[in-house]
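Let's sit down with a protein and look at its sequence and fold side by side. We need material for that, and I hope you will provide a protein of your own picking. Once you have written the record down, we can walk along the chain together.

***
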Amino acid sequence: MSEQLLDGPARDRIKTDTDATLFVEAGAGSGKTHALVDRVTTLVLRDGVPLRTIAAVTFTEKAGAELRDRLRVEFEKARKGPAGPLADEALDDLDSASIGTLHAFAQQLLLAHPIEAGLPPLIDVLDEVGSSVAFEERWAELQQQLLDDDSIAEPLLLAMAVGVELKHLRSLARLFGNDWDLIDERVLVDPPELVAMPDLTGLIAAAAQLGGAVDSCRDPEDRLLPKLHAIRDLGVMLEAATDQESQLSYLQALRGLKVGKIGRKENWPDVAKMRSDCAEVVEVAGSLVELLLDACLRHLSHWIAERVLESAEVRRAEGRLEFHDLLVLARNLLRRDASVRSALHERYERLLLDEFQDTDPIQIELAVRIAAGADGDAPDWQDVEVPDGRLFVVGDPKQSIYRFRRANIATYLTAQDLLGETVTLTTNFRTVPPVLDWINHVFSTLIQPQEAAQPTYHALTPHRTTTPTTA
C-alpha cells in the first residue's frame, strides 16, 4: 500500500532502513503506531534483533498496551512463515519486553542497577495518589519547621504582612518538588541577601509635603482631600514605626490607595500636579513593597528548596520513590557511571521513542546515553555521538500540549536537528478531504517556522476519498 501514497518512500524507509537513526515527524492520523510496529517487526523478524533487547517508550500505559497487542498479532502471523522461530522467540519475550511509559523504563534501569544508583535492593514507587498523600505529610512537617525556625522568622513575617499566606508557600513547595532536579542550578545558585528595609526618607518627606497641601483645597468636600489626609497620616505612622513589619504594613496601605482623576479643577491651584504627586507616592510605596517582598521570597524559596532536596534524598535512601524521582535518578546514574551505560548499551540494542513532543526532556538524555554506551559521558547530552540505527524517534510538534509537564518544543527541535535524518508522514487516514483542506489552509497560515520555537507545518494528504453516509 505504501507505494501508492505520497509519503510511501518515507514509510518504506521507516520499515526497512533499520541501520539509520530516524526522526519521524508524524502528522495527526498518519498511522504512527503502524509505523512503529513495522519497524519493530523488521528488526526482529528480518534483522534477528531479539525483542528483549528493544525498548519502546510510549507516552501512556494505554499506548504501550496497544503497541504490545499489535506486535503480538504480527508475530502470531509470522509463526507460519520462514521467520517462525524468530516469531516464537519474540512471543516468548513479549510480555516482559521493555514496552511502556518513560517512568516504567526508568524504573527498569534503576532496578537493574540499584547499588550504582544508591538505592536499596527493593524500591516502592508511589502512584499519583500516594505521592499526593506523601506530599501532604511532608508539607505538614515542613510547615511546622517553618514556623519554629527563628532564622527564617523575619522574612516570613514580612511576607505575611503583605498578603503572602502559608498556602502560597505550600504551592511553592509542591512546584519545587515537581522539578527538584533543577533546584541546585536555578534556586540555590547564590545565597539570598539580607532582608533590609529600603531608605524611606524620601517617601516620608513626599507624604508630608502632600499633607501640607490640604490647606490649599478650596472645598472641604472635594474627593481628593481624603486621599491627601490618608497619605499624610500613613507617612506620619511610617516615620514613627519602629519595626519592619509595621513599616511594611503602612507601605502596603499606601500602595493600595487609588487616586485616579478625582478632585475638581476649581478646588485646587493645580489639580493635575496634585494627582500626579499622589500617584507618584503610591507608585514609590509599591516599588518599595515589591523590593522587600522579593528579598523575603528569595529567602523563603531558598529555605524551602533546601528542604525539598533533603526530602528527595530521604526518598532515595529509603527507596520510596515518586515518578519524577525515577527519571532524575536514572539520568544521574547514566551521567556518572560508564559501566552502567556500557551494560545498558549491550542490553538495549535499539530504542524507540513515541510521542516525543510531549515527554520530559530527560527522556532524550536517557536514550542518547544508553545508545552511546561507555562513550556517552559528555556533560551535555547534545554532545554525545549516537551510533547509527540505535535510536528511532516519533513525534508531532503540532500536538505538543504538555509544557506544564516539562515538555519543551525547543528540546524536540534540537533533537530533530542532532539525531539522524528526519522523515515525514503526511498521509492522513482518519479525516475526510474537506476537513483536511480547511486544516491545511488555516494551519499553513497560522504556523510559521521560528527557530527553536515553531516547526514548519507540513500539509496533510487525505487517504479517504468519500464522506461516510448515514442511512
About this structure: The mean pLDDT is 92. The radius of gyration is 31 Å. Residues 126-318 form one domain. The first strand starts at residue 22 and ends at 26.
